[in-house]
Amino acid sequence: MPDQAQDEATATAWAREAGKQILVTSKTTETSQTVANPNGSWTLTEYTHPVRVKHGPDWTPIDTTLVRNADGSVTPKATVLDLALNAGGTGSVATPIVQAREAGKEVGLKWTKDLPEPSLSGDTATYAEVLPGVDLTVRALPEGYTENLVVKTREAAQNPGLRDIPFGLHTKNTTVSVAPGAGRATPTSGAQPSDGLEVKDDTGAVVFTGDASRMWDSSGAGSEAERQLGEGGGRREAVMGVTLSSDTVVISPDQAFLADPATRYPVTLDPDTLCSTCGMQAHAVVQSGYSDAHNYNASDGDLSDLKAGYETDDRAGTSRSYLQMNTAQIAGTVVHSASLNTTVTHTHNCSNAADTDLWLTGPFGGDITWAHQPGWSYYMSSVNVANCGNAPDVTGQFNATHAAQDAAAGRWPNVSLALVEDGEGGGVATWRRFALNPYLQVNYDSPPNLPTALSMQNGLLPCTSGANRPWVYTKNPQLAGKVSDPDGGTLLAKFAVAYGALGHNVYTHDNGANLVAVGTPGQNQQATAQLAAVPAGWINEDGIYNWSMQASDGELSSNWVGNCEFTVDSKVPAQPVVAMPSWTHPAVQGDPVEFSIWTGMATDNFYDIDHFIYTTDGSEPQVQGSPSVPATQSTDANGKMVAVGGIKATALSGNQNLIKIKSVNKAGMPSPDAQCVVLPESNPTLDPPSCSYHVQPLTPGKNLVAAWGADEPSGTALIDSASSTPDNATLPTHPATASGGVTRGVGYNHGTSWTHPDTGGYSDGVKGAITLDGTSGYAQTGDRVLDPSKSFTVAAWAKLADTTHSQTVIAQDGTQAMPFALQYNKENNAWAMRVTTGDSATPAAAWAFSSKPPQIGVWTHVAGTYDASTQVATLYVDGAKQSTVIAQPWAATGPAVLGATKWSGARADFFHGSLDDLQVWQRTLSGQDVHDLAGVAVPLANYGLAEGCGPELISATSRVPSLQASWALGQTSGNTAADSTGYGNTITLTGGYAWVPGHGGGGLQLDGATGYGSTSGPVVNTAESFTVSAWVNPTDLNAGYTVLSLAGSHAANFVLRYDKAANRWAFGMSPADDAAAAMTWATGTSVPQAGVWTLLTATFDSTASRLRLSVNGKHEADATAGAPWTANGPLLLGAEPGAKNLFKGVLDQGRVWSRDLTDDQIAAMNGLRYVDTAAQATAAASGGVSLTTETDGSGSPTGCAAQFDNTWTGRLVGPRPANLRTDKSFTVEGWVKHTWTAADVAASGQVDPATRTLISTDEAQFSPLFLSYRPYKDANGRDHGAWSLILTVPNAGGVFASTEYSDLDAVDNQWTHLAASYDAATKTMSLYVNGELQRGKFYTASGNATGVDVGASIGGLLMGSGIWTGQRTNNLNGGVAGVRVYSGLRGTAGINFDKRADDPGNLFGVTH
């Protein structure tokens, strides 16, 4: 066991354990030490003056030895006062001889010229021959120093320079003044008291004291007087004159003394300095022969020790020593014993020495003299120890218990003591000298304070009695109270528990044999002592009990406190019964609903039910955090005691609503879930087995009040698009205006998801966001958006840039604060739904927090809901419910604020990062609603892989059945352009035209004035989907030039042209055959160039009424058209109806298809390969993979796909799809054909024995997902090949893989559509085969599709291969097409839509 501890608690514990004293290092000071004793008491040792100093973290004994440091400076090793001696040498005249420093205050004397380098001996430095025959010596003292001029010979004394000796004065933050009468005349001569010096700080407090008036000779050296009196005994002394100016001290030695034949040389002149604030206590020696001498804290020369008694060796006569000791630490304690411990350095007698007595005296100060002594209070003890031979370490111990006890009882800060002769007339037998620094040692203890803050159950139940006594459900409750002790340290807590109310104890138990030990932080600082559980056997039955506690330090104990009563109710409440009253008829999501509740008692006629808790979303009701209603005592028809209650709520969910209710007794124990019943008089809508009822769901946009997609490319306005959602056309709009540090950036999705149907390519639009700087940027509406006192929902996609401060996603303004804020909370490092109590500067708040900290730089969906019927606020993150809080927002009337909130009337909590898709409802979305909102699929990547059909698309003999017209424009003469399709859509040319070289062979040049071409009639049904395409090379860009158009009776149905005003390519469609109707335009983004060949392709999707424009094979623009109509007029080449906007330049390879080509098919026409048409990126192909056109046995084309050959080396690696996080919800899809030929069967068996991967990601060690073909053996050992989904998550052994197999075996050599999704909110994996959700075999931790974790992907998209243990593996042999990646959940309907759209045979009319 160590001998010392940092704090009192540890010291007392170790002392008790080890049976020895333990030093408390935190209580150590320069003058005192405190130790803990094994019995719980303490011992204080208090010195008169410092005995140690602190160097860094450690205490060092006082050591005045002088040392020369590495930098040449001279300092003592360890003294209280910071001393620096002059190092001597050239330039030393500018430095004080000794510089004394204390707390930024300095003083010192300077010599008049450079000093020699000093010689060091112990505590003394000697500067030799500073004047002829005169040395300057400096001696370091614990609290100061002496500075002496030593005149070595009588001849040296005759130097005129010794008449007046000037010293330069150095001060810093101090002033020096004369202290009249404060000089010290020594008792060996007739010198009279002289004036001293005082050094004061800026406040006038004395920091240093000094005396420049003393001089003495060496006549006492070796004399009997020196032996009896100590240092200075027998010497002759005189008083010097002292003159003080602002920067000089001049001493004037007594010239008569120097010339006196009786003066024995050397003679010492002594200007000294002491620190008056360094020593915490004081001493003084007074002598009858010098009744006016001021010797307060004098500690050098003949006053370097303490004296008591009578002597005759000089005129001092009787001496007495006064001591002042610090007793603040023992104030109020119980003192067992105390002693003043001294070292007797000399007595006159060797035997028959008289006693020295110890007395308690009144206080004394700097004015103490023999003539001005404090009063004596009482005698305490005596010491009679002889030491005439000056032996070392002779101890004299005085009993000081009486004084210490009075000091403790009176709470004196210090005590004054006197060492005096025993009686009068004892003569020299009373003479005794003591070492200068005696110490007071006190053994004490303090009774612990009364325990406070008594409580039960971790502070939840404060101590009380009577009718309000608390209830507990356990027979082993936790008891606690705060204990403290004036001395600090470890305390022992005793608890007693009695059966019965106060005054009626039946029996009592206590823990006297096993007290609870607890360490306190320090003196009178509380610590909690707890009985973690009342031991078994103390409480044997339910009923009323009372308890108390006391504290002990092992020696002393406090009084008992407490008398705390409590009731034990250990029985689980009876199951309640619930019915839906006949007057409530919920039919639609959001309708009000009511329930009636009643329950019997667990013990007959013992009423103990306090309230009912409930949930309306199917989650389990919690005693803390769930809404509640009070229970009312009643009786049933049989007169038995029951509790009844009623709930008013809202049908929160669409379709099924689950109600769960529990009763809670007064001890806080919940019952089992309630039993739902249908009674003759109740509403039969409630289904008893499931305790649920059904209502019609609301559409997503119902009660939507604002929606900001943040997709605007620039500007400060954020459009509120809520009115564009279904059934909301009449909604008022609430546009928001950005201010401060707000810019536009790339967002998470396009528009406002869920509320706006993903039709007509809506989700493919521009994905924008607002990016905020975190210091000044935010946006706000111009008016109130919602009433927060009613049910509401707020939601947004948020991407944090950092977590350096709390940051708000969305809030609403009050005057001083906000009623709610959906935000990141810095203190808890969590997403939060914050609800405040009122519109004050700093209102209190209730919080619902996320269970995990946010991810920086990751798009995260956050939503907050409030149900006014239950006053429950709920936080959701990425569609998963996080927590709830009971709260009640107030009806603020201010605007909605995006990216900041209001606090103390000012903007606060600015968001740093990006916000997108912010939506607000004046209703409570259900948990399923929020899940669906957060899980809306967002397209991230789309590799159609149809580019292998590019040659077939543009071939003069194309076999694409939808090709309606194809004009190679390669003639060299004539006025017609032939259609190679066989449909006879010949173009007749007119005006200024010519046959010239084109993009691929010949081309048609039009003059822009009169030349154009026209078919005889329509070439495609414009009421259905179609595609038009042509290569164009404009001569200039000086006007609007039309490439293709189709005429109706009164207007053009569509126009593909160069738009001069926009300086862009554009594709437009008219909503009606009306010349006055405004066309809808899809305007490109690239800048057209004259004289450069450009491929223009435009498509119309009649199902979605969507028109799209691609330039050079890359999609650039789209727009939503009106209702399609059939144009019966001709197709015009190079003009619009009425020969308007005639093209000027060269045209080539015009084509029309009766279907909307896909983006990858369009890319193929410009020779692009492996294109991700969602992100306009390109995958890298390597090994045995190529883009091909599949054919049947007759050679007819049947599909377009990427083919991976049987070298099993092919792979495609695409860039990492933006915002793809496999640890969040995602969906991947693709068409795959697993090739397994007859040759393969012959070589390896009927079933391919290797895993073949369609989609994974390119990682360093393990792909987090594998959508694959995978072999397995059934229970009978039979081989199967199945489609599979594998999801992995890192663990200590590498990864844990969760696997799902398809319901049926994979069919080789046949196209199959696979899709896989991961729902992070529910941790569910899903595998689809040909659009059907599989329910096959699961190899997961849960044994089913749930409870699955997935690691986060960081690599690119990998097709045809996977990564396992850092190696590319599972290579595919077969075909791949239509690979799509989404963040979110595509769902069955979306997957089947993609399946049809991406069918590799679509181009050729083949359906798989």
From TrEMBL:
GO terms (BP aspect): immune response
Looking up InterPro entries in the UniProt record yields: ConA-like_dom_sf, LamG-like, PTX3
Reading the lineage from the top rank, the first entry is: Bacteria
Q: Which UniProt keywords apply?
A: Disulfide bond, Signal
Q: Which PANTHER family match?
A: PENTRAXIN-RELATED PROTEIN PTX3
Query: Signal: is it a keyword of this entry?
Result: yes
Q: What is this protein called?
A: LamG domain-containing protein
Instruction: Report if keyword Signal is assigned.
Output: yes
Q: Where is the composition biased (Basic and acidic residues)?
A: 224-234
